[in-house]
Amino acid sequence: MITRIFRVRVPAGLHAEFEEKFLSVSVPYVQAAKGLVSVSVGRPTQWAPDEYVMISTWESVSSLCAFAGEHWNQAVIPAGMERYVTECWVHHYENFG
């Protein structure tokens, strides 16, 4: 299995709007992908006041590639969500143990 961690920095004035769209657009978009095992999201804390996270677990690299395409190591931003992204990062980990 592969864990994908998507981190995104969102301007403070857009947090409430982003959260609604993150849950109604981005999460369902990922949930519809074949090979997804789980997905969870997190909101900012005092240590990263503008950063959100989506953690998804995938059956395999091939299922992740089917979702994210050839450049699966880059962010997948659903249409209309790019306006909230100041910057973002994607990290991948092979599950073990």
Task: Name the strands of the widest sheet in spatial order.
Answer: 2-3-1-4
How would you spell out the order of helices and strands?
Answer: EHEEHE
Spans with pLDDT under 50 lasting ≥5 residues?
none
The biggest beta sheet is recorded as:
4 strands, antiparallel
Q: What is the 3D shape?
A: globular
Mean pLDDT: 96
Helix content: 25-40%
| Percent strand | 25-35%
Measured on Cα atoms, how large is the radius of gyration? 13 Å
Your description of this structure?
The protein has 97 residues and is an alpha+beta fold. It has helices at 15-31, 61-68; strands at residues 2-9, 36-42, 51-58, 87-94. It has a four-stranded antiparallel beta sheet. β2 (36-42) and β3 form a beta hairpin. It is globular, with a radius of gyration of 13 Å.
